[in-house]
Amino acid sequence: MQALLTSIFLVAIAETGDKTQLLSFVLAARLRKPWPIIGGILLATLANHALAGWVGSLLAGWVPPTSLAWIVGISFIVFGLWALHPDSLDDSPRMHKAGAFVTAFVAFFLAEMGDKTQCATVALAARFDSLALVVIGTTMGMMLANVPAVWIGEKLALKIPMKAVRISAAALFMAVGALTLWGASMPIR
What we know:
The chain is mostly helical. It is built from nine helices and no strands. Helix 1 packs antiparallel against helix 6 (116-127) and helix 2 crosses helix 7.
């Protein structure tokens, strides 16, 4: 349960103001088809985070537990620093001829590659021995942040204090990193 709740909370907070949330605003404004956009976001996130979680699980099997704990702890602190930097959407997604669902799926899958939430999914899967719960949790966190963006759009973005959200996300990532490092430094009995 800890893997699920940590994954939901970390990703939902980290995703607020992230480039994929900005992409949700753009897709909603351009395509004006919320259900296909939400479906595309959901499937793209599931695919992307399943891949990221699988990589994290592999790392957990290859790297000795103590070394892995230090790598994951430091990674979370780096994600915290990364969360302080505001994201921007480099270019507008191109409408795919297959429609809003495919456009949202492709744009979201590609935008999430190498993103902090994907990297966090790798670290979470390496940290917790529960791939399914991590993927479900990170996907739920993404949906918690992006579905309102699709439905409410830019009106919501203007009311959210993005700087406070970035600071909260950074603090949360750093706290998880510090707790992970503290656990790594405790003697094994």
